[in-house]
Amino acid sequence: MDHATALALLDWQIELGATEAIGDAPVNRFESVEPMRKPKTPDLTPEPPAAADPVAEARALAENATSLEALKAALSSYQHCDLRKGARNLVFADGTAGARVMVIGEAPGRDEDQQGRPFVGRAGQLLDAMFAAIDMGRDRPEPDKALYITNILPWRPPQNRDPEPAEIAMMLPFVTRHVELAAPDILILMGNHACQALLGRKGITRLRGNWTEALGRPTLPMFHPAYLLRNPAAKREAWADLLALQHRLREG
């Protein structure tokens, strides 16, 4: 190729836009291109629903209840406590709503489960006799003489076993709201499990007879009547506690 022809070819390439020399050797651009990747298929598998929080759901149901009847209905609709599956009845409360004194026990027994009322067996009969001795009772209409009675658990545990911490945690929002709606002046906590739930402490032999506070109210721990049936000698301490309650009520 002569000089004039080479110069003409160079001018032709410049007119086409090839104005820069990249390298001395040609490059096969097809070899330098990476293979096209397959687009990633999106994962359309639905995520499993978040596990329900039994305590949070109990709290929401309890807080939305604006009356004792509504609270009982909310408790009846609560599905997370397995105790309900083996119980015959929901044991909600007994006595006079609006009473100055609210008694909180531990859990229903066989008789309570059958009748759907708290403290109706032998222990309940003793409880009635104890409070009758200071002129009080669940059937009394006068707020100063009446009792309003419930339990930490509303369903009977199998074989009357002790309440488990998870069961108490689920029921505590309902108990708290129950006290708010019943609005007693004084709480009586019967037995270790009621004290554990509302005071965070056990040891009823040390706690009983000593005024404290639970849920913003004056609170008196006492021996559970079932304990007194097994240990009659402790009735003397129980009588002293009843007199302390009577004195507190008279003071206003």
The biggest beta sheet is recorded as:
6 strands, mixed
Helix amount, in percent? Answer: 40-55%
Across the major sheet, the strand order is 1-3-2-4-6-5
Q: Spans of 5+ residues with little confidence (pLDDT < 50)?
A: none
Structural class: alpha/beta
Strand content is 5-15%
Description:
By secondary structure, this protein is of the alpha/beta class. It contains twelve helices and six strands. The protein is rod-shaped and about 135 Å long. The chain has helices at residues 3-16, 29-32, 54-64, 68-77, 83-86, 110-115, 122-132, 165-182, 192-199, 204-207, 225-230, 235-251; strands spanning 94-95, 101-105, 147-151, 186-190, 212-214, 217-222. The chain has a six-stranded mixed β-sheet with strand order 1-3-2-4-6-5, with helices on both faces. Helix 3 (54-64) packs antiparallel against helix 4 (68-77) and helix 3 packs parallel to helix 8 (165-182).
